[in-house]
Amino acid sequence: MWEILWPAWAGGVLAALMAAPLGCLLVWRRLAFFGDSLAHATLLGAGLSLLFHIPVWGGILGVCLLLALLLAGLLDRSRLPSDALLSLLSATLLSAGLIAIRFNPGAPVDLQAWLFGDLLALTPSDLPLLAGGAVVILGTVFALWRPLVLSTLDERLAAVEGVPVLRLRVLLLLLLALAVSLAMKVAGSLLITALLVIPPLAVRPLARQPTAMALLAALAGVAAVSGGLAASFKWDTPVGPSIVLSATLLFLAGRLLPMKTNH
Amino acid sequence: MWEILWPAWAGGVLAALMAAPLGCLLVWRRLAFFGDSLAHATLLGAGLSLLFHIPVWGGILGVCLLLALLLAGLLDRSRLPSDALLSLLSATLLSAGLIAIRFNPGAPVDLQAWLFGDLLALTPSDLPLLAGGAVVILGTVFALWRPLVLSTLDERLAAVEGVPVLRLRVLLLLLLALAVSLAMKVAGSLLITALLVIPPLAVRPLARQPTAMALLAALAGVAAVSGGLAASFKWDTPVGPSIVLSATLLFLAGRLLPMKTNH
Amino acid sequence: MTGPLLELTGIDWSREGRRILNRVSLTVQRGEIVTLIGPNGAGKSTLVQIAVGLLKPDAGVCRRQPGLRIGYVPQALTLDPSLPLTVGGFMRLQARKLAAADVGQALAETGVGDLHDRSVHALSGGEWQRVLLARALLQQPDLLVLDEPMQGVDLTGQEELYRLLAEVPRRYRCGILMVSHDLHLVMASTDRVICLNGHVCCEGHPESVTSHPEYLRLFGWQGSQGLAVYSHHHDHRHDVHGCVTPSSAQAGS
Amino acid sequence: MTGPLLELTGIDWSREGRRILNRVSLTVQRGEIVTLIGPNGAGKSTLVQIAVGLLKPDAGVCRRQPGLRIGYVPQALTLDPSLPLTVGGFMRLQARKLAAADVGQALAETGVGDLHDRSVHALSGGEWQRVLLARALLQQPDLLVLDEPMQGVDLTGQEELYRLLAEVPRRYRCGILMVSHDLHLVMASTDRVICLNGHVCCEGHPESVTSHPEYLRLFGWQGSQGLAVYSHHHDHRHDVHGCVTPSSAQAGS
Amino acid sequence: NSVVTTIKPLTLIARAVTDGIEQPVQLLPDGLSPHDYSLRPSDRQRLKQAELVIWVGPAHERFLAGLIKNGPGTLNVTALPGLKRLPRRKAEDGSPLPGSLDTHVWLDPDNAILIARAIAEDRARRQPALADRYRANAEHFAQTLKTAWQPLQQRIAALPRHEYVAYHDAYQYLEKSLNLHLAGSLSSETESRPGARHLLAMKKRVHERGITCLVREPASGAGLLQQVAGPKDRIAVLDEGLRQADSFVGGLTLLGQAMEQCLGR
Ligand SMILES: Nc1ncnc2c1ncn2[C@@H]1O[C@H](COP(=O)(O)OP(=O)(O)OP(=O)(O)O)[C@@H](O)[C@H]1O
Ligand SMILES: Nc1ncnc2c1ncn2[C@@H]1O[C@H](COP(=O)(O)OP(=O)(O)OP(=O)(O)O)[C@@H](O)[C@H]1O
Ligand SMILES: [Mg+2]
Ligand SMILES: [Mg+2]
Ligand SMILES: [Zn+2]
């Protein structure tokens, strides 16, 4: 039992740790559906990789980076709401993918990316890649935390104070694309989206500082992964959905505890 | 030929007209992923309908209304970003649906059918229901347009001036749930989400008033449906994605035309 | 019509263990202007939000006349740029049906008559504040609640607008509850001043004083011993929007 | 170190067919305070945004000294409540590493020393403005750009803060570019005043005048003939946050 | 719990082979696509403890590819030597797509028998004591399937028309075995939806060639097929996943009979 459980747990924990600070930035910037959109875009990536005879993961990574860059550009130019722009890009890339595979029907592509990749299918040999990704991502975010938070707070103020806001925005979106596509393989698009968004929401009422929120979100994410895995073992429910639901329970608990102190 | 194309065109136009004012309110309120989330929730609806032996559309409509009510409540209480709350609800309901299905196997649920539903499958007999829905929705939105816009502008200001903001919010979300679940069956969630979000974004630079934006969005939606159907006929591409891409082209055209006059 | 428009009695409000309002009572009658003054963080905006029903008091009673129509100018109001809106459209965004002439007149009265077709997202700070005030007036409410309505309005404008406000209660038979820091301008047009600092520390009719020595005494309250004043020998006059009419061509100072 | 910190030459800026800035030129030297005055919609905020690089001029040159560090207080800044932040955290959110004592001192200087651990989302309007100013000062920038920094600050505070600002250029060897409508308070602490109204209509060193008759002449510019002044016979003194020290128990007026 | 299968058709075949000895366990619940699937701990445990995991292969169940290595203890059905394997076909003209594989291999009775025998051999190797019973079960399965299938083949051969139209091109193994002819499909398996031009072309083709049999899966295609069909044409629902069936032979013959009825007099 334990030899099945621990790689899944370790993988889930790595994903949760990686997701926590990125997820906070995501929520603050109102990009909560970034992971979802990325999952939609993978179809186009798969289609293009066939067209250009490159490996599938190359196509997918390429389209993920493309989405990040397009979004960074649109956010700069138009002052349209970020979620609507994301929705536009997501629908557009998915549609382009659907049309691409129409002209390319030999492709053995999945129409929908997996909602839940399989944590339980993780083997210890998958962990180094995940861990490496987590180190790179967390290291970068840690090193640039202050300017990232400041430009999230107000891009104009940050720009005046000499923060390279455009470059930071691109970097953040690229890191996110990297984290999501890395985690999507092992955890599935729904689970990684949930790990990005729900822990920050759950701990928001408890946090008074950005850093505290990121740390608490990491704790909440680890707790959700652990609780979800435990529940999954106890009641033999599917792992991915169980983790999502345990994160939602944390969110509800956080709502009920502090009744009056808003902000 | 025309006997297949015209119901598709009429259905698409009805969906676009219905979507235009609702979509504007959606974009202004930063709920762009509402349609997407509803599509995720349908799985739970299908699962529950099996459990309680009610027709599938009943279960789906029920879960859609549930999502609308939950969201209205959460938006009121917490001051968390609307897109993040939507993402939370979407992941939670989908996970609950997946778990429900595991305890309830047997029925083939085709998530993809909801995602890519087909306009070309429309027959003239489907149109009255759509038209009826459009009349109800457009009528309600028209009657309450001013208070809806005012409470979208600022809920606190509207509340002080005697607008029943909470009731309006619930009503708007219920109308949206109705419109999306109605349109999802014929057009698929991808297409209806795109029709809700992209036309308002496309015409934003041209509009100086809320009402003008809604009317222009209706025009853009009709143009996208017509253009997409034509493209689908010319290049034999799938209808839904073609309409989405033609809407995106309109968006790009709108970006390129007025270069300097922001706002 | 009888009885006060608004009556707050014994209002308490605490957050995070700090008592922000402490047994505050207040009434506003039809036809009068009540001004809340007090230092930053005194709880003026909180009290105003309780008065209009946006916050619930922890203790105490807030009684508004049944059917009371309120016109409200909050201390800060930011709009999402995704919603296109012209000034005229914003003015008309209210329950009452309006004649175009009324809209134009209300804007003209607050000095922004030429902004009717401009986008609200491109207004300057002072222009936006004037538009907000014009909209509140246009609603012909029973009670006008203004939280620092002159923020960012230029000095000429402030004086004009305070004079306008002073006429409003009689013109529309309404009451005004206002928050302001512009003591020197407020006092002229106010019927009652309430000095708030968590609790009501003093309250009363301002004496009508027209000449400058009194004014200096007000400054004296702030210990403005070292206050130096700039003399602007102006050689031209400005109207609010635009044209300068030079009386002698050169820039003077 | 030689040459001006900021030099704008012949700046033009138009939107929607209206020319908002018309050949505006401006320099700010190290050690001086330059104040922009002018009616609402004169283009002051636009000019300031061009100066800090947030807007690109249609014509003209904006030259900032290479490596110039700017501290900026915009006219309005709203924060998303999903991002938790205390005042202390906000102060520290900048490139430079800071000692805790510095943060405390900067806050104390703008009169909000006791707000260090409060959430920025729960501040009153004036408190937030003071925090913004404290943060800009804390950055020890080469150039401070303040767009109506005293909005919503109470009168006592305004006077204290203007006096503080007057010391800043010498203390930190920096320049200040400020927008303000508080003519009477600004003039005392300003080295140069630029009166803007689309174009620069007058510009010069303010005369140092300390006594009230000059002040009244300034008001006269606004045609304040009917201006009445309220005399506040104060029976107690307030400090910015809180305690009232009554000298006679009863509320006076 | 020593035999684990992934989907219903394989479960049914394995059940026939292991009849009276053991009960194969199916991993994916009926009706759930691999996209929506998420392993439960018990699934994982079963996979680990199984002596034999029978799966269609990486082209169909990609989520298992990383988890089970080919080798002893796994049976990749699509890799069986001797299996009839067909490439997928283009929706427009029915031409084969090089390098692709249609994974509905169980719809060919010969393939089903081959799979049954392969399962029997694998089980026999592990349980030499029961080898004869496994083999006998497999032969019995082969026999009943053939007996059920041959009359069907003959009846269908006697029908005047053998052309059908499918929503998804998912029945070509059945088609080959019954000597049918696909007049066209609305979309190939990986495409989501047909284009308008293709749909109209199909409608024309159905009309011109007098095709009266249209076939779709349970979950999808109802509306679009209705558009293509004439007023008197039949639309048959053929569950290629045999989700409602109790036995493989019963399920497959039911499909055959549905096809027979659809092709009509
Ligand atoms: N939700 C809250 N939680 C905690 N403290 C709060 C909250 N809202 C306001 N406060 C505090 O209550 C005090 C009063 O705030 P309020 O906005 O009423 O002040 P004000 O009198 O309007 O000040 P100003 O003149 O600066 O506008 C302030 O110190 C503020 O920080
Ligand atoms: N993006 C824009 N598009 C169109 N007009 C604009 C835009 N930005 C500013 N304006 C207009 O330009 C003029 C100058 O605006 P600005 O904000 O610079 O004024 P200001 O001098 O700061 O006024 P205030 O004292 O009210 O703050 C205003 O009339 C404003 O409406
Ligand atoms: Mg206030
Ligand atoms: Mg300004
Ligand atoms: Zn007092």
From TrEMBL, chains A, B:
<dbReference type="GO" id="GO:0006829">
    <property type="term" value="P:zinc ion transport"/>
</dbReference>
<keyword id="KW-1133">Transmembrane helix</keyword>
<keyword id="KW-0472">Membrane</keyword>
<feature type="transmembrane region" description="Helical">
    <location>
        <begin position="239"/>
        <end position="257"/>
    </location>
</feature>
<keyword id="KW-0864">Zinc transport</keyword>
<feature type="transmembrane region" description="Helical">
    <location>
        <begin position="127"/>
        <end position="145"/>
    </location>
</feature>
<dbReference type="InterPro" id="IPR001626">
    <property type="entry name" value="ABC_TroCD"/>
</dbReference>
<feature type="transmembrane region" description="Helical">
    <location>
        <begin position="166"/>
        <end position="184"/>
    </location>
</feature>
<dbReference type="Pfam" id="PF00950">
    <property type="entry name" value="ABC-3"/>
</dbReference>
<dbReference type="GO" id="GO:0043190">
    <property type="term" value="C:ATP-binding cassette (ABC) transporter complex"/>
</dbReference>
<protein>
    <recommendedName>
        <fullName>High-affinity zinc uptake system membrane protein ZnuB</fullName>
    </recommendedName>
</protein>
<keyword id="KW-0812">Transmembrane</keyword>
<keyword id="KW-0406">Ion transport</keyword>
<feature type="transmembrane region" description="Helical">
    <location>
        <begin position="6"/>
        <end position="28"/>
    </location>
</feature>
<dbReference type="GO" id="GO:0010043">
    <property type="term" value="P:response to zinc ion"/>
</dbReference>
<comment type="similarity">
    <text>Belongs to the ABC-3 integral membrane protein family.</text>
</comment>
<dbReference type="GO" id="GO:0055085">
    <property type="term" value="P:transmembrane transport"/>
</dbReference>
<feature type="transmembrane region" description="Helical">
    <location>
        <begin position="84"/>
        <end position="107"/>
    </location>
</feature>
<feature type="transmembrane region" description="Helical">
    <location>
        <begin position="57"/>
        <end position="75"/>
    </location>
</feature>
<keyword id="KW-1003">Cell membrane</keyword>
<comment type="function">
    <text>Involved in the high-affinity zinc uptake transport system.</text>
</comment>
<keyword id="KW-0813">Transport</keyword>
Automatic annotation (TrEMBL), chains C, D:
<keyword id="KW-0406">Ion transport</keyword>
<keyword id="KW-1278">Translocase</keyword>
<dbReference type="GO" id="GO:0010043">
    <property type="term" value="P:response to zinc ion"/>
</dbReference>
<keyword id="KW-0813">Transport</keyword>
<dbReference type="GO" id="GO:0016887">
    <property type="term" value="F:ATP hydrolysis activity"/>
</dbReference>
<dbReference type="InterPro" id="IPR003593">
    <property type="entry name" value="AAA+_ATPase"/>
</dbReference>
<keyword id="KW-0067">ATP-binding</keyword>
<keyword id="KW-1003">Cell membrane</keyword>
<feature type="domain" description="ABC transporter">
    <location>
        <begin position="6"/>
        <end position="222"/>
    </location>
</feature>
<keyword id="KW-0862">Zinc</keyword>
<dbReference type="InterPro" id="IPR017871">
    <property type="entry name" value="ABC_transporter-like_CS"/>
</dbReference>
<dbReference type="Pfam" id="PF00005">
    <property type="entry name" value="ABC_tran"/>
</dbReference>
<dbReference type="InterPro" id="IPR050153">
    <property type="entry name" value="Metal_Ion_Import_ABC"/>
</dbReference>
<dbReference type="GO" id="GO:0005524">
    <property type="term" value="F:ATP binding"/>
</dbReference>
<keyword id="KW-0472">Membrane</keyword>
<keyword id="KW-0864">Zinc transport</keyword>
<keyword id="KW-0547">Nucleotide-binding</keyword>
<dbReference type="GO" id="GO:0006829">
    <property type="term" value="P:zinc ion transport"/>
</dbReference>
<protein>
    <submittedName>
        <fullName>Zinc transport system ATP-binding protein</fullName>
    </submittedName>
</protein>
<dbReference type="InterPro" id="IPR003439">
    <property type="entry name" value="ABC_transporter-like_ATP-bd"/>
</dbReference>
<dbReference type="InterPro" id="IPR027417">
    <property type="entry name" value="P-loop_NTPase"/>
</dbReference>
